[in-house]
Amino acid sequence: MEISNSFDVNSPISQVWAVLTDLERIAPCLPGAELTQSTPEQNHSGIIYEGVIKVKVGPVSVKYNGTASFTELDEANHRAVLVANGTGAAGAGNASATITAHLEALDDSSTRVHVDTDMTITGKLAQFGRGIMGDISSKMMNQFADNLSQVLAD
Question: 66, 63, 94, 93: which is closest to 82 by C-alpha?
């Protein structure tokens, strides 16, 4: 399932880039997400982050344990790609996502954030249609944007 979202923040592009590419600072902005550990990757110069995310869709709540790491950080073009994979507890299924963020300077003090997510879900949450999942994703992205704005304001 592919989902695209955009939102604006009142901060310069360099400041948004610095926060958006720091998973330890950005993870708490995503509702239900929590980092539990970070370790150097074996074959890359990056870091693999371990964590959990709790997702509620209607009456169904699922907690995924998994990993996330940046596979691309292109500072010159303000483009970052994050790959995340998780396994749900108690047979809840699996989830994976490739999240591509691209920043666009609107002026010296504001930035548009474009986020494209290619997500695959199996198990309990897979029973919900694209429409419901898209609505949940939009709500989560709106909360993420509000939380990011607060982090940038601090």
Answer: 66
Query: Could you tell me which of 59, 57, 26, 75 has the C-alpha nearest to residue 119?
Result: 57
Spatial CA neighbour of 82 closest among 151, 132, 129, 35: 35
Q: Is 66 helix (H, G, I), strand (E, B) or coil?
A: strand
Q: Quote the pLDDT of residue 44.
A: 53
Spatial contact of 103 and 113, defined as CB atoms under 8 Å apart: yes
Structure-token pair, residue 48: 């693999």
| C-alpha to C-alpha distance for 61 and 15, rounded to whole angstroms | 34
Block mean pLDDT (10 aa), the chain, length 154: 92 97 92 85 69 84 90 96 89 88 97 93 74 76 92 90
Tally of CB atoms within 10 A around 33: 20
